[in-house]
Amino acid sequence: MANFSNDQSQYYEQKKLSLCNDITYAGFLLSNATADWPVSCLWTCLKNRSCYANCALAPSSYDIKDYIPPKKWSKMLMEFRTRINCSKDQIEAAKKVKELNICRDRCVNVGMNGLSLWILIFSLILSTLLLIGRDGWFGWFFYVASFTTLCHIFIYFIWKPFGK
After folding, report:
1. Which of 5, 40, 49, 93 could cross-link with 58 by S-S, CB 3.0 to 4.6 Å?
2. What is the C-alpha to C-alpha distance for residues 86 and 46, in angstroms, rounded to an integer?
3. Are 104 and 136 in a shared domain?
4. DSSP one-letter code for 155
5. What keywords appear on the UniProt entry (predicted)?
6. Chain centroid to CA 75: how far?
7. What pLDDT is stored for residue 77 in this prediction?
8. Do the beta carbons of residue 39 and residue 28 sit within 8 Å?
9. Distance from first CA to last CA of the chain, Å, rounded?
10. Which domain holds residue 121?
């Protein structure tokens, strides 16, 4: 093993501790060809419902919006943590991880499909019109703003003229 100065040893121990506690991307680090992977949004939750998200490299073999089931993701994390000599508690903690969600395109909607997102947005606009739409210039301002927002959403999410 190489001889490191105290500062270097502390630095590497902090990095190892970070990897031993990571639940969003560390499971991929035993795979090959990581330099060719695209950046993806990754998020997962623990069984106590605390959620974690990260942007990191993920294998391109997964779909644009995909997930890894809990048992498989836990196994990948446990294998990685075992290989880098994490503590037994850290290795066992990988069993508390739920599935890993992967997204590489339009991740703002957190995996909602187009129809659900469209219904949600339309409902918000309609409720805005019903609650705020009054007579006079102030009400007309909200009608125009809602219509403009609806057109923008249609162009961005449905028509996608600037997309691939």
Report:
1. 40
2. 19
3. no
4. I
5. Membrane, Transmembrane, Transmembrane helix
6. 20
7. 93
8. no
9. 49
10. 114-159
Give the CA distances from residue 51 to residues 45, 93, 95, 154, 163, in Å, rounded to whole numbers and listed in that order.
Answer: 4, 15, 15, 31, 30
Count of domains for the chain:
2
Give the pTM. Answer: 0.62
Structure confidence by residue, pLDDT tens digits, 121-149: 777 777 766 666 566 666 667 677 777 77
In this structure, of 1-5, 11-15, 34-38, the range with the lowest mean pLDDT score is 1-5
Question: What per-residue string of b and e applies to 86-111 under the rule 16 or more CB within 10 Å gives b?
Answer: beeebbebbeebbbbbbbbebbeeeb
Work out the mean pLDDT of the chain and round it to a whole number: 78
Encode pLDDT of 73-119 as tens digits: 999 999 999 999 999 999 999 998 988 888 887 666 555 556 666 77
Q: Is residue 164 part of a domain?
A: no
80 and 142 fall within a common domain: no
83 and 54 within one domain: yes
